[in-house]
Design brief:
Largest sheet: 8 strands, antiparallel
Strand order of the largest sheet: 4-3-2-1-5-6-7-8
Distance between the termini: 36 Å
Helix content: 25-40%
Number of domains: 5
Bound molecules: flavin mononucleotide
Shape: elongated
Number of strands: 26
Radius of gyration: 36 Å
């Protein structure tokens, strides 16, 4: 079954039952407090497993003249029903150890009564009960479809417990909490359905008929404390004890235990009849206990969390669905009238956001642009430019709305030649980064009349900065004055801090136009770790630039920057002098931190990608063995970092260093070549639970991951994705 069918069922079930689920969860939250509040009542006893039936029966006989019954409810409160000296029936809680009267049972708190009625029947008697039962069933089906969605998301059955890639808040926590609360929710729903079926007598309640002994044995008078069955039975196993109503041989003790009922001769304690409850009665008993959370505070807390979780799932689920709905397409012109065609491949709607931005800019510039999903690919009579923007899902597969593209491409031909560009949206956290974009590029290359304008451009984590980079290069080729609309730029505001420059090496003093700048926050404390990102927003075009940071002495930030001629922010940073101030914010990047547990870590970087590693070496107080591979152009290129690296080598914070200096010999030597030479060592590290980290450009990342894949296949007989799935390969590339 396809992803969309599961997703559609999940959503339809949720929408159709949302009001009832809402009511059931809110009342469920209130009711979860009932067993918790009951537990703190003075009648609650925690030692029922230390008291035998013989002890309590003897105590009661000593204290009261006539006893009718003794009952232990789901809160472990013990109630005695007796006839007093004046012949009145009295019911009260007792201390099971001493038999002391602890007071009369009080009415259930009115809030709990109200919530119980609403939860059970919506105050609508049978009809309400029916809807509540149905809601349980629907919630059960929602959970089942949810399980399949998690399988799909995590790349199969085995991936169920794998770490979830952290994307946006709602999808991430919807999946994470979904996994945690799955079992309690399944238990709530199955027990709810069972109790409803029983209410409507679809599952019959079992009746017990004892086969009584007709000999009515009266001989061998024993005291209650001598009854074997009474001595062998603890109160924790008892639900109710009915005492004999008269001193006749055909009047027995009736012991209702958790799993059976026993008739006991009142004179000698022999078992007259014993009846194990049928399976249905046990299920009924445990359904009630599990559904209400009585009998265990821990379980009632879990139920409480599950009900809160259900409310969160409703909120996050609907907002995910809304986000997808936002990806509606609005076209002003007919498809055959347009010179620009933008085709989208998207699962969760984010790619639409970018495609819409380009589409509206083209319209603003008076161009005729047509927007469509990849699955609606047709022939476009006047198309001159095709832009495909697509996400990748699963194991490098097409998103749902792009699955048919390949087939459609074979069916629909384009009459005129056209240029095309492919922009891949993906995440480096997945083994097959933007794979579907590369596949689309291959498909289009085979297509008659197509002319590829540029290589596939990949965008990690919906980076606005990368999208803008692509837009700049594309608009130059198209000679268009495109600007990113503010709806795209102002996605979210981050908390900013004022930083002061404490060191700046300046680009003109180094080869390769790179420099190292050190910043310290001026006021308050800002928390960050090496590998996090520093965000600087340009006051000119309001675009955000992100730099990987290293954490250095005294909570200072260290970044390595390449100066670009036209780069506004890199020029601004380069021109800063010691003592100058700059406003920046910190973006947490938890997926790219120095691993706490790995004994060996391989650090791979080219150029300024070394920045976070400078901090990581500094932070390496657990003394993992760090092995650095760095790629640059010349010997002098490394001078900027040499002093610091030598110091770290000396301290033992860095164990080995290998440089790949491309222009220092006749044949170009790149970082992947050096990695190949050290293939065996790297494979040993991966095999022994070590971690490989990669930081730098996406181009380098592609070469390096290809080489690592080769190494893994050669030495470990496994592909790199095996280690990526185990979070043994961390990447931060741009
Ligand atoms: C379940 C799941 C699987 C993904 N698989 C990949 C993948 O294999 N390769 C990749 O580059 N990105 C992968 N991604 C990242 C998405 O392609 C990326 O976040 C994209 O920007 C989402 O765009 P959309 O919201 O338009 O669907 C995956 C994301 C999710 C949630």
């Amino acid at each position: 079954m396809t992803l969309s069918v599961w997703r559609y069922s999940h959503l339809v079930l949720a929408v159709s039952s949302s009001i009832f689920i809402l009511l059931a969860s809110i009342t469920g939250i209130i009711l979860a407090f009932e067993p918790i509040s009951n537990r703190v009542q003075p009648y609650t006893t925690n030692n029922l497993n230390e008291i035998t039936v013989a002890e309590i029966a003897t105590t009661l006989r000593e204290n009261y003249t006539e006893i009718i019954s003794l009952e232990i409810d789901k809160n472990d409160w013990v109630t005695a029903s007796i006839i007093d000296g004046e012949g009145n029936n009295e019911i009260f809680y007792i201390n099971p150890k001493t038999g002391e009267n602890l007071g009369k049972p009080t009415e259930t708190n009115s809030i709990f009564q109200f919530a119980t009625n609403l939860h059970r029947s919506l105050f609508l008697k049978s009809i309400g009960r029916f809807f509540i039962g149905l809601t349980s069933l629907l919630l059960f089906l929602i959970s089942i479809t949810g399980i399949f969605l998690i399988f799909k998301k995590q790349g199969g059955f085995r991936g169920f417990f794998r770490p979830i890639v952290k994307e946006k808040f709602n999808p991430y926590y919807h999946t994470l909490f979904g996994r945690w609360l799955l079992i309690p929710i399944l238990i709530i729903t199955i027990s709810g359905v069972y109790l409803s079926l029983e209410q409507f007598a679809i599952i019959p309640k079992s009746k017990i008929v004892h086969q009584e002994d007709t000999l009515f044995a009266e001989e061998s008078l024993l005291t209650l404390s001598q009854f074997e069955i009474f001595n062998n039975t603890k109160l924790s196993d008892v639900r109710k004890i009915e005492f004999p109503f008269a001193e006749f041989p055909d009047s027995y003790f009736l012991l209702q235990l958790k799993n059976k009922e026993v008739l006991v001769n009142q004179f000698n304690g022999t078992i007259v009849s014993e009846f194990n409850y049928p399976f249905t009665a046990l299920i009924s008993y445990y359904s009630l206990i599990l559904h209400t959370g009585q009998a265990s505070i821990l379980w009632s807390i879990i139920l409480l969390l599950a009900c809160i979780g259900i409310l969160f799932f409703m909120y996050s689920g609907f907002s995910i669905a809304l986000q997808r709905r936002k990806s509606r397409i609005k076209n002003r012109f007919k498809k055959d009238a347009c010179e620009y065609v933008i085709l989208i491949g998207s699962e969760n709607g984010n790619t639409f956001h970018f495609a819409n931005a380009l589409h509206s800019e083209l319209i603003r510039l008076g161009k005729k642009s047509f927007l469509a999903e990849l699955n609606s690919y047709k022939s476009y009579k006047n198309m001159q430019q095709l832009v495909v923007m697509t996400a990748t899902y699963g194991k490098g597969e097409a998103p749902t709305n792009a699955k048919k593209f390949n087939a459609l491409l074979q069916t629909h031909q384009q009459g005129k030649p056209f240029d095309y560009s492919v922009v891949g949206f993906g995440s480096l956290a997945y083994p097959d980064f933007c794979q579907f974009a590369y596949d689309v590029d291959d498909m289009l290359q085979q297509h008659a009349n197509s002319n590829r304008l540029d290589n596939v451009f990949t965008i990690n984590n919906q980076s606005l900065e990368s999208f803008n980079q692509w837009l700049l290069q594309w608009k130059d080729k198209e000679n268009l004055d495109i600007r990113l609309p503010s709806t795209v730029i102002n996605k979210k505001k981050r908390k900013t801090y004022t930083f002061e420059v404490t060191k700046n090496t300046k680009a003109d003093e180094q080869s390769d136009n790179t420099f190292l700048i050190q910043l310290k926050v001026t006021l308050g404390k800002v928390r960050f770790k090496s590998g996090d990102l520093l965000s600087i927003v340009s006051d000119k075009d309001h675009r955000e630039r992100l730099y990987s940071i290293g954490k250095s002495d005294g909570n200072t930030i260290l970044i390595s920057v390449k100066l670009h001629d036209k780069g506004y922010i890199s020029n601004r940073l380069n021109n800063l002098n010691i003592g100058d101030k700059i406003e920046c914010s910190i973006v947490k990047n938890k997926g790219f931190r120095l691993p706490k547990k790995a004994k060996n870590v391989v650090l791979i970087a080219t150029g300024t990608g070394i920045g976070p590693y400078l901090g990581m070496m500094h932070e390496n107080n657990k003394k993992s063995d760090l092995h650095l591979y760095w790629g640059g152009r010349k010997k002098e290129s490394f001078n900027l970092y040499k002093k610091e690296i030598d110091a770290q080598l000396e301290k033992g914070n860095l164990v080995s260093l290998r440089l790949a200096l491309s222009q220092e010999q006749k044949e170009k030597l790149y970082i992947q070549h050096v990695l190949k030479e050290d293939g065996e060592k790297i494979s040993e590290i991966l095999k022994n639970k070590g971690v490989v980290m990669i930081c730098g450009s996406v181009v380098m990342q592609k070469e390096v991951t290809n080489m690592l894949d080769e190494i893994c296949k050669k030495y470990l007989k496994k592909s790199l994705s095996y280690y990526q799935n185990k979070s043994a390969v961390l990447m931060d590339c741009y």
